[in-house]
Structure formats: structure tokens, C-alpha cells
Amino acid sequence: MAAESSQTLERGLRLLRLLSDGRPGRTPTELAAELGLSRPAVYRLLTTLQNEGFVRRDGEGRLHLGFGVLVLARAVQPLLREGALPALRRLAEEVGATAHLTVAEGEDGLAVAVVEPSWTDMHVAYREGSRHPLSKGAAGLAVLALREGRTGHVVTEGHLQEGARGIAAPVPGLPWLEASVGVVSFTPLDPEVVGPRVAASAVELSRALA
Fold first, then answer.
1. pLDDT tens track for 97-125
2. Alpha carbon 153 to chain centroid distance?
3. Angle at which helices 39-51 and 2-19 pack, to 10 degrees?
4. DSSP H or E stretch at residue 63
5. Under 8 Å between Cβ of 29 and 61
6. What is the Cα–Cα distance from 49 to 55, expressed in whole angstroms?
């Protein structure tokens, strides 16, 4: 019974991961094919997940993540922030730029933790809770790079604010988290120096959260 329950849980989690990949919903038949399961097995999983609010069905019968996932996400964000602050604080102080952790929510990036340097005369004020399309800004582009299997740093200028320069790197090795660590500054940032430092902070954060 324990082994069967564990297998059911694993299948349910795999199903949720499929529905979180940004595609516009799937039918039960498509889910069964991608999971390698029978349709009756998938229907049983969907029934349970729908009852708990983690999956919803649209008017065309396609399945999407349900709003119950948002409740879990809100509970996780403070934990992410707490875990990220030490690495972000070191990065901000060493680089002299505002450091941040951004997580993907669908096709948007959400800043869940921000640390400003203590010793600079001027730095970018970046608000926790800021939301931007993943296609704009170094933080979002780093998340998109992660989806493509790339882990190097990304450099942008003027994407979100005129004159602001950003460098970000994806947080690797955490299948449950799409996120990036980055810095943003009005003063020049040397990508050859700052890029590897940002990438190292992303790896440090990954290890702290693993």
C-alpha cells in the first residue's frame, strides 16, 4: 500500500509539472500520452487534483493549473526570500549594485527578494513584488535561458528602466523552481567580472535551497 501511495503521489506531481510548463492547457488524452499512463489512471489523478483546487478544466475541456497552487506559492515565497537574503546581501555588497531574486509566475517574473548595497552613493531602487514579462530585463531572460537548458549570465541595458544595466543568471539544479539571481545598476557593470560573480551567487542559492 505504501509503495502504491508513493507512486500515485509521484504521478500527481509529474502531472502538475506538465501543466506548469506554460503551454495553453492539455486534454486528458494528451496528459496520458505524455505521462505514459492509461486514461483511467489520469482521470483518477485529475479528479483528486480538481477536487483540491490544484487543477481546473476550461470550457473546451483542456486542463490547467488551478488556483489552489497560488496558495502554496504564497506560502513558499517568504521561505524563498529568507533563504535568498544572505547570498543576495553578499552579492550587493561585493558588486555595489542592487541584487534580487526573481521567480517565474507563468510568463511573468516576480521579484521576491531585493537587497540594496549599503556603501554606494547611488543605486537602483527595485521593489519586492515588482512584476515584469520574462521577455524584458536580465532577470526574466535568464529564466527563459534556464528553460532552454542554458545557465550562463545574461546582460541587458535599458530594458525596464532607461539607463539601468542588468546582469542575471538562472538558479540551476532545482526542478521545482524557475528563478534567477541578478544585479541592476545605473553605473557600468563589467560583464566579465560581475557575470561570473552573479552566476556563483545563483549556484550558492541553489545549494542553500536544495
1. 999 999 998 889 999 999 999 999 888 88
2. 15
3. 80
4. strand 63-65
5. no
6. 5
